[in-house]
Write a structure and sequence with these properties.
single chain
């Protein structure tokens, strides 16, 4: 089923309405959808490099708005909507473990790392931020920075290096972003516990 969902999302890139689909996928990815918007963004930006930055802005705005929707789901409708979504994707136990370990600083780090590298999944973090009452203003700012950095960096890579970079991005960007996220977490812990 996951492969079919991935293939369907990828097929949207060839449609005339691809930009609207990108916005839709980026929006729902941040709160309930399993497949990341990158699956649609990459082929769109490769086929139209002159629009790579435009697509990055569309994906960023839609992703942030979807994150806000996820925050509201967590804050106001956790039991009715968010919990069943997390259970459907098998993420509820991960969610509960994160909830127990979460303070404001940890939530902020998770927003940045999930925005950059999908670790942990963005939908889990947006819902968690709402459940624990993470300040919505800080949530929006961090989502803009993290998601914007991810999509704009992809746009720059694709415009600069074109098709050869696609395979590198698909195979290694998550790993590189994960290392960057780990470095950010380590830096936070050093500042918090050493200073």
């Amino acid at each position: 089923m996951l492969r079919q969902l991935y293939d369907w999302t990828l097929s949207l890139a060839a449609r005339k309405s691809a930009e609207w689909w990108l916005a839709f996928i980026a929006f729902i990815e941040s709160s309930i959808f399993l497949v990341p918007a990158d699956v649609l963004y990459l082929p769109m930006a490769l086929s139209r490099p002159d629009r790579a930055y435009r697509y990055a802005i569309v994906a960023t705005v839609a992703s942030v708005l979807g994150g806000i929707a996820g925050w509201y789901l967590g804050h106001y409708a956790f039991e009715a909507i968010a919990r069943p979504v997390l259970e459907f994707y098998g993420k509820y136990d991960d969610f509960e473990a994160l909830k127990v370990a979460s303070g404001t600083g940890i939530i902020l780090i998770m927003l940045v790392t999930s925005g950059l590298s999908h670790l942990p999944p963005i939908k889990v973090v947006t819902i968690l931020a709402g459940v624990v009452g993470f300040p919505l203003g800080w949530f929006i700012v961090s989502a803009i920075i993290a998601r914007g950095a991810r999509f704009l960096f992809l746009a720059w890579l694709l415009k600069t290096y074109g098709e050869p970079i696609r395979h590198f991005i698909e195979k290694r960007l998550g790993l590189l972003a994960g290392f960057a996220a780990a470095a950010l977490i380590l830096l936070y812990l050093l500042v918090k516990y050493v200073a």
